[in-house]
Amino acid sequence: MKMRLNYLIYTAVTAMLAFQSCDKGFEEMNVNPDASATATPEYVFSKALLDVWDNSYFGTQTLACGGSMQHYATYKDVPGIGDKYYFQQGTYPYDYFTTGYPKAINEIATVINAVDSSVNKLSITRILRAYAMSRMTDLYGDIPYSEAAKGYTTNNFTPKYDAQADIYADLLKELDESAQALDAAKPTFGVGDYIYGGDVTKWKKFAYSLMLRLGMRLTKVDATMAQTWVTKAIAGGVITTDADIATMKYTGTATTNRNPAADEMLSNDYAVADGVSNTEGGKLAKTFIDTLRAYNDPRLNVIAVVWNGGKADTTTALQKGMPNGLLLKPSDFATYSEPNPIILQYTAPLIVMSAAETNLLLAEAAVRGWYAGDAAATFSSAITSSMHNWALFGSAGVIAENRITQYVAENPLSGTTDEKLEQIGTQMWIALYLDEQEIHANWRRTGYPKLTPVNITGNITGGTIPRRLLYPPSEESVNSASLQEAVNRQGPNVMTTHVWWDK
After folding, report:
1. Is the distance from CB of 342 to CB of 368 less than 8 angstroms?
2. Which residues face 313 on adjacent strands?
3. Distance of CA 491 to CAs 94, 216, 484, 495, Å?
4. Tens digits of per-residue pLDDT, 52-111?
5. How far apart are the C-alpha atoms of 188 and 451, rounded to whole Å?
6. At residue 87, what are phi and psi to the nearest 5 degrees?
7. CB-based contact 337:292 (threshold 8 Å)
8. Which terminus of the chain is more solvent-facing, meaning fewer CB atoms within 10 Å of its CB: N or C?
């Protein structure tokens, strides 16, 4: 066997040398005249923006996070990772990991390496990296961070897994430094920035808003550290009005430039708008619809429809959510609610950070005594902003002001501290619909809203709602030593292991 191996190596080397001796002109022939020899950072930044959010939306957001948060339900087994805590086949638990690193994370690193002399471009890209990495670590816990994307620059294909505590410390530092470095008098990415069009003032508010989110994430594991960063974020200035919300804009003209929620839900479940031809057996969940109906929430009529006589009907009385954990297709499947077609527009904006979210976080900070603002007024402003957000989807998403005023009046922030925190957590669960990853993270931190898990035979969590997703099998074979170190530190690579801030 050894002799044969040596022979194969010798043959390969000989062939390579022979090829090199007679390749005159081949090098020029293999150069693509239409390709750039170096990456243009402005273009790569635009591509990174698209890839940060176009990453396993259906598998990760809709099925895994959205199902476990009981926004969506399915009667089928294979897509039941969040609905039934099943994982029998497919790649749902690790799609976000395997897709995120080679695309968005590498692209962001490429831009950072190329724009280090441009303070605004570098700072904005660092902010984007903090956002992308926070999403990755919140899903998995310990991840490759400090050595991530080093394969292109140092041939490091076995990066270490950093502890989530260290990752969070660096994410917050990155946001702080980047926000302070932004300078409105210097160049930006301009129109290549699909979020703010190069508006430095708004990027600064986004950075501090993300700091507020991540700071609040620490309330369970380190309340003192949480308060420190929340206070710093508020002092820096966060998004508080609808004029400053962060949204990704899409042209819808190519598959790479479509709203990912619309693109993937249409591709996987709602392509045939008839209420019965749902490829993955998905509908909106009973818990979600029942909650909206119980409080006469006007958002119900822009979120949900029932297909009635071939038309999308938003009538409140018709809206009905499908229970999570079903094992067979219900005979009345067509009568259950689905996402409103206004959501499923390729050109619809994707809300990245809203005044609804930041005001809810500010209301919580006020309840905890970390913010001097009026908790009740801030809570009401958050709900109002949440309802205004639906107008971004077109005239059919506009909610009448009198309905908003009535709902706000009927749902004031009141009661004990725990009751107020529950109200805030429940409103976050409603306001952030479509950003299921953030909803799942906020639920793990707060425990609100109080969800009743399913416990179906064959589930892999013992009938408890998943706390994280799974590292991919490829890491076990390619980067096993680093992976094992993370598992030894964090806990088993199972969906019930709690990440650091969720202890």
Report:
1. no
2. 306
3. 17, 24, 10, 10
4. 999 999 999 999 999 999 999 999 999 999 999 999 889 999 999 999 999 999 999 999
5. 44
6. -150, 95
7. no
8. N
